[in-house]
Amino acid sequence: MTAIIVVLLAAILPAKNFGGGFTADHELKAAAKSFNRTAKEVLQPAYPRLAEAIVDELSLQDRSGTGVDIGGGPGDLVLELSSLTPCFFWLDVDLNPFFAEYLFRGALDQGCSERVSFIQADVHKLPFRSDFADVVVSRGSLQQWKDWELAFSEILRILKPGGKAYIGRGFSANLPIETARDVRGRQGGGPRYDPEAFAGRLRGIMNDLDIKDYELKRPKSQQDEVNYGVWIVFRKAD
Ligand SMILES: C[S@@+](CC[C@H](N)C(=O)[O-])C[C@H]1O[C@@H](n2cnc3c(N)ncnc32)[C@H](O)[C@@H]1O
């Protein structure tokens, strides 16, 4: 009986094809609202530092171009990147369309709505032509991707020759340890995974896709007390 009710409800409620299965709109809305709260109330100190690290390490300061944040959620990283790169156009690409309103609201508050946008898309099938983006970034999304080889080959495809990707989870090395400790504390210790195994998987993907020019980052890995995460920075060959 319960199964029949669930099937009937699924048939009449608005739903989206979300990562291989249908998810009702009200669940996607609730997920977007809940993560937006986490971003604003818990993770907030991490975004400006991460944006600074990306802009610095990829030398984006005085450049113009197009940047894509995959799984950008409510757009906190995109907005920070946008304020540091006034000649860049940033796209927040996320599977869940209900994040769009948070990005656009933030862009209006920040006065950069002409330089950012939102596109609903799956990293496994990006709706961009090849050689489209100067930069692709992503934070805290890849652990949810179903097929890393496909996802990373899509990222490689949309990057311009010489373009760079900065992808991973966690924090950047420039986040003060006290702040990182505080954020992890509010997260109840943070996500539990084996950073070494995660790094090994990323190395394997670089190998499989024949990407030679890459750097694997384990910020502050010597301070095992706080897991700063794992990042891969790579460049598409010219
Ligand atoms: C933990 S949130 C991180 C959001 C944002 N990057 C941040 O750091 O604030 C993970 C995000 O990845 C998105 N996501 C998961 N799988 C995805 C996929 N296959 N394609 C695009 N986005 C995806 C989710 O919808 C969610 O917004």
Question: Could you explain the architecture of this structure?
Answer:
- It contains 8 helices and 9 strands.
- The chain is α/β, with parallel strands linked by helices and 238 residues long.
- It has one domain: Vaccinia Virus protein VP39 (Rossmann fold).
- The strands form 2 sheets. A 7-stranded mixed sheet has the order 5-4-3-6-7-9-8, sandwiched between helices. It has a two-stranded antiparallel sheet with strand order 1-2.
- A hairpin with a 2-residue loop joins strand 1 and strand 2.
- Helix 3 (46-57) crosses helix 4 and helix 4 runs parallel beside helix 5.
- S-adenosylmethionine is lined by residues 19, 35, 39, 70-73, 76-77, 94-96, 99, 122-124, 139-141, 144-145.
- Residues 19, 35, 39, 70-73, 76-77, 94-96, 99, 122-124, 139-141, 144-145 line the site of S-adenosylmethionine.
**Percent of residues in helices:** 40-55%
* Secondary-structure-derived class: alpha/beta
Rounded Rg? 18 Å
Low-confidence stretches: none
| Amino- and carboxy-terminal Cα gap | 59 Å
* Secondary structure tally: strands: 9
Task: Report the major sheet.
Answer: 7 strands, mixed
**Secondary structure tally, helices:** 8
CATH class: Alpha Beta
Q: Could you tell me which ligands this complex binds, including any ions or cofactors? A: S-adenosylmethionine
Strand content: 15-25%
